[in-house]
Amino acid sequence: KPPKLRPGVRFTQAQLQEAGRFWIDQHRAMLTEIGKPRIELYRRYELHDAVVLFSADRKSPRRNLVVSLTGANQRLMMPIAGYLQNFDGKTTDILYVRDSSRQGFRGGIPNLTDDMAEIGPALTKLVDFGPYERKVSVGVSAGGIPGLVLALRLGLAATLVCGGSSPVRGQFEESGQRKLGDRLREWRDASPETRVVLGYGAQDEKDETSAAELAECVPGAEVDRVALEGVEVKHNLLYKLSAAGLLPAYLNEKLGLAG
């Protein structure tokens, strides 16, 4: 295993090379699991401290834009390199949005907006959404509800919430504030055509409950139980689908990505 990071300890060049090789080998194994016949090529464009556009060619936008909001650990249930490989780089750009404040985007994104409801409009000032034929979002864990709100506020074609939080419990229930469930219903009324898919792992009772409670606030939402034969699927459902080589097809089907 690679050396662990410890305060006040410096690594030798040999240790860093060992850690780098371990990282590369892990990603090679992930690519083998995904089963792609080729590597998807993406360039990284830093737009903001918490926003990165991954595109094969930014001057020539792809047909799809997938706005992807992370959970509190800054990941999309897997390293970003693996997540990207589950898309078609020739047709799809990924707008990676991380929860830099680690508060589930409740206070927006530092130095961009202080309101979760305004994340979508703020992102359109960083990226021109217009040229894309299909615009969708993916939100995982703590980024699930913010990804949903973004999709409804911008009228995106579809949104996929994976292991999202409940709108009626925990972090979104604060005294003195208007209930999030009521706001979600209003945003849904304004964006009835957006396809909403609420995914959860078959063996995660907490996420199942959260998906059901969220569905009550978003009329027409599809609750999707993700199960794999012989495999326990809990909160980290996207990684499990990727490891089984099923995530590219899953994303294409739920988000309706243009080929």
Describe this structure in words.
- The chain is an alpha/beta fold and 259 residues long.
- The protein is built from eight helices and eight strands.
- It has helices at residues 13-34, 80-84, 119-123, 144-154, 180-190, 205-217, 237-243, 247-255; strands at residues 43-48, 51-55, 64-69, 92-97, 134-140, 158-162, 195-201, 222-226.
- The protein has an eight-stranded mixed sheet with strand order 1-2-4-3-5-6-7-8, with helices on both faces.
- Strand 1 and strand 2 form a beta hairpin.
- The protein is globular.
- 40% of the residues are buried.
- The model has no long low-confidence stretch (mean pLDDT 91).
Main β-sheet, spatial strand arrangement? 1-2-4-3-5-6-7-8
Largest sheet: 8 strands, mixed
Total number of beta strands = 8
Helix content: 25-40%
What Rg is obtained from the alpha carbons, in whole angstroms? 18 Å
Shape: globular
Average pLDDT confidence is 91
Strand content: 15-25%
Helix run count: 8
Q: Which structural class do the helices and strands define?
A: alpha/beta
CA(first)-CA(last) distance:
40 Å
Order of helices and strands: HEEEHEHEHEHEHEHH
Outline the low-pLDDT stretches.
Answer: none
